[in-house]
Design a protein that fits this description.
mainly alpha
Length: 168
């Protein structure tokens, strides 16, 4: 799957989270999450550019999702002030809460990427090295028109959430 397809999948998956946050008055926090899952949707595909890492190998596992999410908690915690100065509404959250949220969104994004690759015939092995079992729904190839369709559905999901909540 290409970047636009992964972005679409992530937006569709994150739309309920965004809706819950926005409905509870945490619109900025939800928007930050939308930005994170959209901008980092193709992060696991860094393996294409790394000569020692197989494509859809370790970067396409639940372990990578957890590790990357945890790895950003410290830096976000440490650099909270510049983040809050850019988005003052985030100052309402404790440093640990904000850091955990950003890390959670990043892990969510990587897991969303795995869902996107699950839709293709090549599939994924999300539990390597503990299990070599491959998972695939084989709905369409990675280079199909589905990328654009998924992106459109993702944008409509988020826009629809904004529209519905605007009346609340």
């Amino acid at each position: 799957m290409y970047r636009t397809g992964h972005q679409g999948v992530n937006l569709v998956l994150f739309a309920p989270v965004f809706a819950a946050l926005a409905a509870s008055g945490r619109v900025v926090l939800g928007a930050v999450g939308v930005g994170i899952v959209c901008l980092t949707a193709s992060m696991p595909d860094i393996d294409i550019k790394l000569p020692v890492v197989a494509h859809r190998g370790i970067t396409h596992t639940v372990w990578a999702a957890a590790a990357v999410g945890l790895a950003v908690v410290g830096p976000v915690y440490y650099f909270r002030e510049p983040i809050v100065s850019a988005a003052p509404d985030l100052g309402a959250y404790s440093p640990l809460t904000l850091a955990a949220y950003v890390g959670g969104c990043l892990s969510f994004s990587i897991l969303g990427h795995l869902v996107g690759d699950l839709l293709t015939p090549m599939g994924i092995r999300p539990f390597q090295p503990l299990s070599d079992r491959s998972f695939s729904l084989s709905l369409w190839t990675a280079d199909s028109i589905a990328n654009k369709a998924l992106f459109g559905v993702g944008v409509v999901s988020i826009a629809g959430t904004v529209y519905l909540l605007a009346g609340v």
